[in-house]
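To whoever is covering the structure queue this week,

Two jobs came back overnight. Logging them here so there's a record in the thread.

Job A:
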Amino acid sequence: MISLTDTQKIGMGLTGFGVFFLFFGMILFFDKALLAIGNVLFVAGLAFVIGLERTFRFFFQKHKMKATGFFLGGVFVVLIGWPLIGMIFEIYGFFLLFRGFFPVVVGFIRRVPVLGSLLNLPGIRSTT
């Protein structure tokens, strides 16, 4: 099992609450207050989990500047009060930022008993 420091545990909690508030804000017809809270908690949690310096290095790499611009621009647009447009920017930036992790996540999910069998069905296997 992976041992986490207390700071990383706090970061996991902040990130989890951030994802919850983002999801709940989208369920409640893009409530801008919940989305803003979710954005702040998600970014703060990420900084707690991987550290402040590594967070800056991750977001501000030269080849990820477009993705960072869309993601942080979307956060800003949500904070100023346009939640639908901001979430579109954020989702696009999120997929650009984390696209390198998606094959790892799919590989992990393939090893989970029920979900792995679903991902290995003939029609789905070719798309993932």
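Job B:
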Amino acid sequence: MSCPSVGSDAEGKGCVFTYDAVGSYERVGYGNQRTGSTLIMPFLDSQLKSPSPLLLPAQDAVTPLVKYEAVDLVKTVFASATERDIYIGDKLEIVILNADGIRREYMHKASLRKFYIMVLKL
């Protein structure tokens, strides 16, 4: 299983790396781990138009999102996944890293359901 690690590169751009138990790592456009990942990753792939991992040389996901779009996408993805996977927890923590520092947002399962319903009604 690979695990994502996030931060910023030398140019100040956000970056995500996946790594595994034997020390292999790869820079990717986004990542997910643990329960629900089989539900979440295909959704992210479709929304972010990720290039095929079979393309050589490897390419990062190129769909740019502003902060509120990215946060809304994460909320939508987890709202959907919590409806289908009973092992996903009852609370979501979104950590936003940018030049202003680190900010955290929290949502509980009930709020995720309300958010999901609101998104469907738009």
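Note for Job B: The mean pLDDT is 76.

Please reply-all if you pick these up so we don't duplicate work.
Q.
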